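Lab notebook page, bench 4
Experiment: in silico fold of construct C2
Operator: M.H.
Input chain length: 98 residues
Purpose: comparison with the prior construct
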Amino acid sequence: MEQVKDSVSLALQKRIDQLATNMEKMKLAEYVELLGDTKRLLWVNFISGIARGLGIAVGFTILGAFLLYVLRKLVLLNLPVIGGFIAQVVQMVQIKMY
């Protein structure tokens, strides 16, 4: 009976140590501390929002430029139906740019 209690106690202690290690890896204490500090939480979210917005703007600009480049190349191929439509789209974009 004594051996069973010792083995259960040892297994329980090992499991508690694993949980403590996992919580340290997750940085749970820092997260809870962040949730408690409202000003810091707002600041971190504000900065991350600015970074996300800037990333979206830069990414969309690069994607749009690449799309316009491809559309211009398609216009040069003089495809019957698509060429005229693409030419109109490129012309509208160029008018809006200036």
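Observations: The helical segments are 2-26, 28-36, 38-76, 80-97. The chain is about 95% helix and 0% strand.
Next step: discuss at group meeting.
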